[in-house]
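Sat 14:20. Reprocessing the chain from the morning session after the first attempt stalled halfway. Input below, unchanged.
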Amino acid sequence: MLGEALSLGCALAWGVSVIFFKRSEAVSAQAVNLFKNSSACLLLGITLLAIGGGFPRDRSPEDWVRILLSGVLGLAVADTLFLEALRRLGAGMMSIIDCVYAPLVALFSVALLGEKLGPGFMLGAALVVGGLIAASSGAVAWKDAAALARTHLGSVMLGVASIAIMALGIVIAKPVLDKSELVETTFTRMGAGAVSLAIWVLIRRDRAETFRVFLPQKVWWNLVPAAVLGTYVSMLLWLGGMKYTSSSVAAVLNQMSVVFTLILARVWLKEPLSVRRMIGGAASLAGALVILLAAH
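Finished this time. Tokens:
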């Protein structure tokens, strides 16, 4: 159950890092993404050197294209779009939109990888996604979310697009993950995302403002732990989960981060935890248990 454990660990790590990302909005989404990707790439490079790893000489051109394209799509494009949508819509609305991640990964996995989804997975996935939707907001917040979706349809579509691109990117990389070393693959994918985003920033007129994020400043108190935990640690756990279990199972368990975020927001930020959220969280936890039992 290594893959399942890593996927749940990723959900917990991301749940904690979301608290820090929420406090890092003093700089642009593009700057945040460039900072977190560059920092994680540096840490992964150091990790790769420390364990004596290297790049495989027998990797096929197709596999190189898969892992590099996955990094560009997932880390340069999807993450920037996600952070921008988060700023426009807020964490509550994005937590609802984020619920499409697991179904999209399952859909792409069936279409592109030929994965089979049994009845146990379907039941567990329904409990997890349904619980997450219920836990993401209360009755009043749902009305606010519906109004926000109507008046900011473009931003909602931006959020959905970010999740869809993220899901496609990780499914593309799955065949390479299955036969590659975890740290090297994570570093290669992260490097592709960091370099491609840096090139994009360099050709923009606001590049000086974006690169200013690398100068020590107050926002670093939240941005640094967010980058380390939310990108370096989470990425290793996320890809590890994808490597050691099916994409569909890993994706559903990854979405438990919403439940962890709700609990941590209650403990650290003193945000209210309604009965609706507690029931939704309990349903999601039950769904995760069903998936774990069905997978083994």
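The mean pLDDT is 82.
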